[in-house]
User: What shape does this take?
Amino acid sequence: MATSYQESSSLLLQDFKVTIKEASLIFPSQETLTHERKSMFLSNVDQVLNFDVQTVHFFRPNKDFPPEIVSEMLRMALVRAMDVYEFLAGRLRLNPSSGRLDVDCNGAGAGFVTAASDYTLEELGDLVYPNPAFAKLVTSQLQILPKDDQPLFAFQVTSFKCGGFAIGISTNHTTFDGLSFKTFLDNLASFLSEKPLSTPPCNDRTLLKARSPPRVTFPHHELVKIQDSETTTTVFEATSEHLDFNIFKLSSQQILRLKEKASESISSTGCVRATGFNVVTALVWRCKALSYVKEEDLEKESTIL
Assistant: This one.
């Protein structure tokens, strides 16, 4: 179905120095800051998923867009973005009246860091293979701020000797999930191109409020816990077992075939959209489930929990 390869960690540059050139805060426009201060409601899921999510995006050298110009363009685009995503300049707080976490949209600012490395992108090794050293390309804690006043959102632009650069982004999960983060990047790209918003965001989280009193109107099979007397470990339990790492590359043609196959099986219902993400996730989960079950259990239900 797909090609696979396994790189030796010895081929990765695991210890490269990154020098922080400047760490600062960026703020929404003055017009946004003068608006009435407000807080953003966080759903029940957001109350639990309060952790930083870090991503690194690599860009090859482009003579028309050296890192210095990119940094300044990003800084200006992020100011525009915070006018729309006002909560990115806010801080998490415990609301004394409700006892719940929310985001205080106080305009305290987001982090913006510029850094440099004396290596080239090629010297880093395989940029696809996970490398713990890439953590140096992301900033989640600003040394200029106390621990109880850290931003929910921080950008780091690291330039390399070859002229390429990396953008490291740290966001608290209460600000974005996967899909909304993708939408944010689309909108940021629009601002960089001086275009209108690609997709105007909906920042009203009260739409996710639980009903009071709670009303369960249909079975939630995804919450069924399958009892397995032979398995005692939990998903959060660490293992000392040696695990091999593989990367599987799916071509656009292979993903298209998966979507076509999925569309055939759901054509009768028409209630599920066979996106590339959905079919690849389903394929990975199917492989995982099959690796755990015995032949006589193939007809049994599988659940993530």
Remarks:
- DSSP finds six helices and ten strands in the chain.
